[in-house]
Amino acid sequence: MEFFVTNYNLCVDTVNMTAVASSSVFQIGDSNVIQLVSTFDTPPESLIIGPFVPLTPKG
Question: Which domain of life does the UniProt lineage start with (predicted)?
Answer without folding.
Answer: Bacteria
